[in-house]
Design brief:
Elements (H helix, E strand, L loop, with lengths): L1 E7 L6 E8 L2 E5 L2 E3 L6 H13 L1 E16 L4 E15 L10 E7 L1 H7 L1 H6 L12 E7 L1
Parallel strand pairs: 1-6, 5-8
Antiparallel strand pairs: 1-4, 2-3, 2-7, 5-6
Length: about 140
């Protein structure tokens, strides 16, 4: 399974994040989701961001490739995160899976509080201009 996400900053250094519903629980993350059918990774991240946030984006460089193994479900996931920028649109959730319940721009300190482990895994605490694209194995779950 391939999953894409977008790391998007605004002109005030805020990061675009989404609140996801998973069963009866909720968690914050970057906008993104599964690659479908014959989509390229770029097409998938553009579609997912539009569905989850309402924004049209331009995809920039590669931020990271992360890998996870889900033993119980027998899934092997690659999570490819791209840098992107908003080119137009406004916040408007149109997620066909109804998994997104909130979209917001948040400063890095708020992002660190809302999603501390993802903040560290994605090296969001680093200077975004100087971070090198990276690969990380995130374990077996």
């Amino acid at each position: 399974m391939n999953v894409v996400s977008a790391f998007i900053y605004d002109s005030n250094e805020n990061i675009l994040i989404v609140k996801n519903r998973k069963g009866d629980s909720f968690y914050w993350g970057l906008p993104g989701g599964a690659v479908e059918g014959e989509e390229t990774l770029e097409q998938a991240v553009i579609r997912e961001v539009k569905e989850e946030t309402g924004y049209n984006i331009a995809v920039g460089g590669l931020h990271s490739v992360r890998e996870m193994l889900f033993e119980e479900r027998g899934h092997h996931a690659l999570i490819i995160t791209f840098y992107a920028r908003v080119i137009d649109g406004e916040i408007n959730i149109n997620d066909p899976d109804n998994d997104i319940i909130e979209v917001r721009w948040a400063h890095s300190e708020a992002v660190k509080e809302l999603m501390p482990s993802l903040f560290e895994m994605l090296k969001m605490n680093c200077d975004k201009e100087n971070i090198q694209a990276f690969y990380a194995f995130e374990g077996i779950r």
